[in-house]
Give the backbone structure.
Amino acid sequence: MSIAFLVTTLIVVATPGTGAIYTLSAGLSHGRRASVVATIGCTLGTVPHMVAAITGMAALLHTSATAFQLVKYLGVAYLLYMAWATLKDTDPIVAEEETAPRPAGRVIASGVLINLLNPKLTIFFFAFLPQFVDTGEPGHVLRMLELSGVFMLVTLAVFAAYGVCAASVRDHVTARPRMMAWLRRGFAGSFVALGAKLALAAR
């Protein structure tokens, strides 16, 4: 395991993106449990990209403009939906123990979709992992699985830290409804901005 791989992976994961914003939003809106579950969902959302990289399916997105555009605009549509859902969620937030927790399956599904519908993540796996794997060696598939596993563990750790930190200040934020309203708008605006950035992305 090279230091270059670990450093680059940490930079890629820690840079705020759709997954990080979703985890922060879950932590602030629904508490520590929801943030951890959201983290698991976002981490699981990298599995299809890993499979695509290992099987060569990522090459299709890299070479086929139609396939790339299809996945890209599905991602844009889902990010816009997340922005709308964030703004729509105007129920007053009270202490976590006084409210029924959100269904884990629903939180995980949203996290999976956020990372699944991100063609740039597939391109990342396709372009980044091969630099650290000699495809001519017999065990190159296991090596890619190993590196992908490290990427997922880093994602899990970093996103969990984001979510738990957000949940730790939740009581201070929820005691100020106007602040929570502005945070909702901020998260919704972030989803819209990320959707616009993805819409303009080239292969």
In short: The longest helix spans residues 140-168. Residues 19-199 form one domain.
